[in-house]
């Protein structure tokens, strides 16, 4: 029995281990990575022209074949590839940052807003070959009050801050009446921290839950889940009827 043990272990190893190891040593995985690396070298050859710190492409032919991506902050966009058949194959560089779409500065705009602009009828792109700043500058939140026309506050906030947190940290409440005492403390449960923002291009996108909660004006946002990524004007104390929100 003792002599058979090594043989049994070898058979067991042959039957069980390949199912666990094969995904990691499969030749197809190695080939796939090789192909991807080759494509990248073909798209951006070693003899590609040098790029100035800032450059523009004008009178663009669309689709451009330029691929953009973003960071985990979902702000800004940079080039991750170019279609080999693109007219602009040697006109842009890998990881170059998108600065402007026509005259609009989009360097720190939410990525979904940038994609909307790229799907529009633009004619020029301005890019930078310099490394993208790792620190996004603070945003300015301009606060106005529907019930007090003379009210005006300019608040500086870190990018990604929720409107609710910025307001409350500056002794400004997004709540109305008794909800100042009965709200959910920013846990997205009560739906009472409603503010109005007309230009939402520098805000985080509405979630499905937020959209299903707010039934009134398009400008209405739940301040507890709305992130600020650029200069924005927000209005507090707007009228909210019972049929304009649900929870």
Automatic annotation (TrEMBL):
<dbReference type="InterPro" id="IPR012675">
    <property type="entry name" value="Beta-grasp_dom_sf"/>
</dbReference>
<dbReference type="InterPro" id="IPR036010">
    <property type="entry name" value="2Fe-2S_ferredoxin-like_sf"/>
</dbReference>
<protein>
    <recommendedName>
        <fullName>2Fe-2S ferredoxin-type domain-containing protein</fullName>
    </recommendedName>
</protein>
<dbReference type="GO" id="GO:0051536">
    <property type="term" value="F:iron-sulfur cluster binding"/>
</dbReference>
<feature type="signal peptide">
    <location>
        <begin position="1"/>
        <end position="23"/>
    </location>
</feature>
<keyword id="KW-0732">Signal</keyword>
């Amino acid at each position: 029995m003792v002599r058979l043990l090594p043989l049994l272990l070898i058979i067991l190893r042959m039957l069980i281990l390949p199912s666990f190891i094969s995904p990691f040593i499969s030749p197809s995985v190695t080939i796939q990575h090789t192909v991807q690396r080759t494509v990248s070298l073909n798209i951006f050859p070693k003899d590609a022209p040098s790029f100035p710190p800032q450059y523009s492409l004008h009178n663009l032919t669309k689709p451009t074949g330029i691929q953009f991506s973003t960071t985990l902050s979902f702000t800004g966009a940079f080039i991750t590839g170019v279609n080999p058949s693109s007219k602009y194959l040697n006109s842009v560089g890998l990881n170059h940052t998108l600065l402007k779409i026509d005259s609009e500065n989009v360097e720190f705009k939410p990525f979904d807003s940038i994609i909307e602009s790229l799907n529009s009828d633009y004619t020029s792109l301005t890019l930078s070959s310099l490394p993208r700043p790792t620190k996004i500058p603070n945003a300015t939140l301009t606060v106005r009050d529907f019930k007090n026309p003379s009210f005006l506050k300019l608040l500086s906030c870190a990018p990604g801050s929720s409107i609710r947190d910025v307001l409350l940290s500056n002794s400004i409440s997004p709540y109305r009446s008794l909800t100042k005492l009965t709200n959910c403390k920013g846990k997205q449960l009560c739906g009472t921290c409603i503010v109005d923002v007309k230009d939402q291009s520098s805000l985080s996108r509405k979630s499905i839950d937020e959209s299903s909660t707010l039934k009134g004006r398009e400008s209405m946002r739940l301040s507890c889940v709305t992130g600020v990524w650029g200069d924005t004007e927000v209005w507090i104390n707007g009228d909210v009827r019972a049929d304009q929100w649900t929870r």
